[in-house]
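Review form for a predicted model. The reviewer records the input and the model, then writes brief findings.
Reviewer: anonymous (R2)
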Amino acid sequence: SRTILSHERTISSPISSILFSMPAKSGWREIEPASSPFSSMTASGTPGFFTGWKRGVDLALCRKVADECGMYMQSVHAPFGGCADMWYDDVAEAEKFISELCECVDACVSAGVDLMISHAFIGFDDDVTVPNDMGLYRYGRVIDYAAERGVKIAFENTEGEEFLAALLKEFGSQNSRIT
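Model under review:
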């Protein structure tokens, strides 16, 4: 049985702060496995983790160091700032976020991780937007892109459960492309 860090612990862990603050050009190449945060995590009995992703972060290098330390890289959390744009009329903003999610899928593949975590919607104060065919189509494109590359998408922390329900109804149950 593997222990996976909770979202709260991962966000404040040295892994995330290093991944998100380190320039992409230096990356993990300059960190010796014995002195990496992974070594201290393994020593403390935590064999697994997940991490976030943003443009410019090379997760394959993170994976390499994690493997050298015997860590299990469970999943990658996708950016979520554009989730609501998937359901809005603004085509340009939606396309920008679709591109970002597909880049995250590619990062999962390069790191050998088959699970990407995503939000279906962000916006506690948004009482105008409702799930719609446009949003389902857009998320469907990302889900198909991920499935073609062997990556599943797990949706979490949805503000507005109706968006998660719409995605599960459209792509869930008998379909193994989302979790």
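Findings: The helical segments are 7-12, 14-21, 37-43, 59-68, 91-111, 133-148, 161-171.
Further findings: The chain has a mean pLDDT of 77.
Recommendation: see findings above.
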